[in-house]
Model the fold of this input.
Amino acid sequence: MYRILVVDDEQLIREMIKKYAIFEGHQVVEAANGMEAVEICRQQTFDIIIMDVMMPELDGFSACKEIRKFSRTPVLMLSARGEEYDKIHGFELGIDDYVVKPFSPKELMMRIQAIVNRSRISSGENPKEILELGGLKVDFTGRLVYIDGEKIDMSPKEYDLFFYLVRNRGIALTREKLINDVWGYDFYGDDRTLDTHIKLLRKSLGRYSGCIVTLRGVGYRFEE
Done:
């Protein structure tokens, strides 16, 4: 059972998500705008937050930015628009997934399960699992990455993708495998999502960006 916060100014959307979530045995708390969502998150804990982008008082991006100041609860963003800029902006703020309206409630539930399961697995990793490659230090347990002793900030999905690439370093990983293993569900969205995350990841890695090699027509590989 998950505790889910559903944030959307459209009551019908909230009710639809709540209906399917409760049917699968989850608890749901509702918020009608970003300001209300931030205040609720200060007082309660959740397994995941479903956040609409366009809302009165405080939009979803701004609310997510405020919540990230004190909580690492996974966030799945909802939007009526699917522009790449919106997705990049959301991922930079630390959201875990992005769903464009209208969406399938069944697929939404699958995405919720995948995100929560992945978050719980990540929090239970071996505390001694640390890998150092020159000036690049990867702390799998703490979900931390350092370059020459300086901590690098990444979005949750960047960490997931980077850790997966590092664990499978030297192996050619197809786009399909990366999407299935990192996102954790059958991916029906825009496959440019993977490329967008690779672009953001390379930016975060700075001088180590070249470690992520593009395999034309295949996918990507991490090289030491």
